[in-house]
Amino acid sequence: MNDSQTDNVAVPGLGRVGRASLQQRVYEELTKSLIHGAFAAGQVLRMQAVADTLGVSIMPVREALGRLVTEGALEVMPNRSTRVPLITEARLDDLSRARCLIEGELVRLAAVQINAETVDLLRQQTQACEEAFVRLDAEHATETSVLNNDFHFTIYRAAGSEVLLPIVRSLWMQSGPFVRASAIIYGRNPSLTAVHHHWALIAALEARDAEAAVAALHADITQSFDLIRADMKRAQDD
Questions:
Q1: Residue 233 and residue 212: Cα distance in Å, rounded?
Q2: CA distance linking residue 47 with residue 51, whole number of Å
Q3: pTM of the predicted model, to two decimals?
Q4: Can you tell which superkingdom this protein's organism belongs to (predicted)?
């Protein structure tokens, strides 16, 4: 298959967008797909294929990809193509550290002001996530990622920080390949689930115990990253 043919192949994980605010809508669609782990590490995003999938011209796609490169969610290859960054141990450590630091502060803030209605919503989201883990496989890997994102950002919005929230969103964009990789590992190991950390986090928030809430969050983040580390080590040893 030549390059012109591969350029016309639809990009999984993307839906068509309308014409209103085209540049922003393309960026938001790509961002959503990155956050939800729709793209694999190392996946090349060809502009023409993305444009065809979204039903737009090349220009807004080029601008959106460039913006995502600037934000660290994508990277430019020597041949000028754009790809999702590879998973490396150094990147694992860096993202894990940054997420625990920033998201931990948001959880600390949320513990002070979260209300009963939000706690009830978190329970519903965790129940849905728990059910999704039961049917988790490669085909449904994105489902758990979407539900997990909904859960975490319900907490982060409750923190009320307009400064920290976009920083976390950027970290989640960069974490997309890791979200996908961990979902695949969970799918291969039905006995594993991260949902118990969600329940612990809810209990701590309801009790307004900020330290316990932060500890539960850190356990939630590091479990998935540790699973990827272990999987990488097994692959190297084979």
A1: 31
A2: 6
A3: 0.84
A4: Bacteria
